[in-house]
Structure formats: C-alpha cells, structure tokens
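pinging the channel bc i need a second pair of eyes. not urgent but kinda urgent?? the chain im working w is below, pasted from the shared doc
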Amino acid sequence: MSMERPSVRLNTKIKTENAMVVACFPSIGMVSSVVAHFLIDHLDLEFVGAVVDPRLPVITLVQEGEPLPVIRAYAGKPQCTIEGCDQVILLMSELVIPEPLVNDIVWAMFEWSRENKIVHGVVIDAFAKQGMKGNLNGAEPTVEYEDTEGVDVVGIGANEKVREMLKSMDITLLNQGVIKGINAAILSEARRRGLDLMSIMVEADPRWPDARAAATLIESLNKLLPSIELPHEPLLEEAELLESQIKSMMEGAEDAQEVTASNSMYG
C-alpha cells in the first residue's frame, strides 16, 4: 500500500497559468509573516487553498474567527513587471516544516508549478543581524555579508537570468552562506530544474517581528510588483498587531508539539 503524498490543492476556479509564486515560510524576525500579511491585505489576495500532507501536525490556526490550514495559499491579480506574469500566488506558513517532510512537500510544489505553468518564483527570507543569534532553533540561515548602517538586503538566483535580474534591482548577490530548511530545498530544486526563482533576504532583528526589515524587503518587491504602495507607518502598526496574533498561534501549536516530535514554531 503506497503512502499518501503531499499535494497542492487550490480552488478549481483559480487560473494559475502565468503566475508568480511568492513563498513565505518562517524567517528571522518573522519577516516572512509580516510581508505575507502585508501582501494579502494590500494586494487583495484571497484564500484559495492549501498544501496538504497527512504527516503535518494536526492543528488549525485561527485568525479573526477563520480557521486556516498549516500551509495555505492566496491568489490575486496585481500588476507584475516580469514578462508573461499576470497574477500572484502566495504560499505561506507560520510553522517550521519538519525536516523529514521538506523534500516531499517541495517536490509536490514544483510538480504543481510545472503542471500549472508558473513563470516565476520569489522566496522571502531573512538573516540575523551580525552578532545576534537566530530564532529558528537551528534552521536559520548563516550568511556572510557587508554590514552597513542601513538594513542590508541580499539575493540568491537559481539561474543566471534571475541573478542578472537581482542585479538590475540593485540587490547584492549573496557571496557565501548556508541556507537551511524548506527555503534551502526550494532553492536547490529550482536550480536543478533551471527555473526562474530568486530568494530575497533581509537583515533582521531576531528578538521581535522586525517591521523595518519587512518594509525594506517590500521596497525591493516594489520592483517586481509596482502596484504595491508602501504605507510605512501602517506597516509598523500592523507588525505590532501581528506579533500578538502569531504568539497566540504559537501557543496553540505548542500543545501539538508535545505529541508530535521535532515540530517547532518560530518566535
């Protein structure tokens, strides 16, 4: 008997062809979550489905009375500067995906993207400020970068075309580092397949939701999605609210951790 495999299950009414996928999995300073919630709100993205795997923890996140799956998908049609791209699909989770599941889930996502003619991918990530320890229980990236007075941003491209695109966006290519967890698997598989996928990483403070880092990263996304208008002050306020919401989600998930080994929420 074959084991059930992970799958991407979206509303059948959603057209996925020529979409750009934005992946927001746990990052330093909760940057990915802040960015994801900002994009959902300001690009009018709608919940359209989930990535399902029977081995994921049996928990449901609840936000404003709405039950949410562990890995969920949102979609919309904001303006996109990439040739051939006319919509956005956002994949996000607050859960650090258990390492034994990562490769299967990533494979399922890439097979889905191939079948649905996805044209581009962006992974949202962050790294801890120099001298600070990350908060992902060993899954945080380690990068060597030139620390400036501002908030530093670096990029990784799965192929030469995307690396040139990052340079045109004035994003410094990461010279050396180690990426871990699901973001590492996404980058590695994208390179193996020769796909147009990039990772944008921002320097963040791991002690709290870093709205300033998220705002800096969104400014880089503006070059891919010029329909984004960055209201800086509201973003900072949203980050403070998001902090309490995510902490509540984490507290609820901690109970599930007691019966599901090796699962960890970040924070």
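so The radius of gyration is 17 Å. and Residues 232-257 form the longest helix (26 residues). — does that match what u expected or am i reading it wrong
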